[in-house]
Specification:
With 137 residues, the protein is of the alpha/beta class. 16% of the residues lie in helices and 46% in strands. The protein has a single domain, classed as Sandwich (Immunoglobulin-like).
Length: 137
């Protein structure tokens, strides 16, 4: 009986540790959100960071990279929309978030500007913005 209890406790502790380490970014990875707009971050070459911003594509709006003042220093690697609901199917009209991933390529400085816009011609531009100053050492 004691052996079973010890095995169960070991499994619970292992699951807790795995859950905790799975939730945090790895070395050289940073996650930013809307509250970080206007801030400055420092990275090392090879570091990756993500920007997670609320979005609702059913309205026609999406986050777009409006400017990267030095794309030899920093490059956008990916952009993905993630639904906000926990179910398998997205709810019609429900919002979620857009996750934009960037990688530091070389030492230097750059400014990144994101805009929440309707990208088609004549669509509404920059109803929200996200600005970030990046230094790569």
């Amino acid at each position: 009986m004691k052996r079973i209890i010890l095995v169960v406790l070991g499994l619970i502790i292992t699951a807790s540790v795995i859950g905790l380490t799975g939730a945090s970014p790895g070395p050289g990875e940073t996650t930013l959100d809307a509250s970080d707009s206007g801030s400055q971050i420092e990275l090392a070459v090879g570091d990756i960071f993500t920007v997670e911003l609320e979005s609702n594509p059913s309205t026609g709006f999406q986050w777009v990279l409006a400017d990267n003042s030095n794309d030899t220093v920093l490059q956008m690697q990916a952009q993905e929309y993630v639904t906000g609901n926990a179910g398998d199917l997205p709810l019609p009209g429900a919002g979620g978030k857009e996750v934009l991933t960037f990688k530091a390529l070389a030492t230097g400085e750059t400014n990144v500007s994101l805009e929440y816009s309707r990208p088609w011609e004549g669509g509404e531009k920059a109803v929200q913005t996200f600005e970030l100053a990046v230094t790569v050492n």
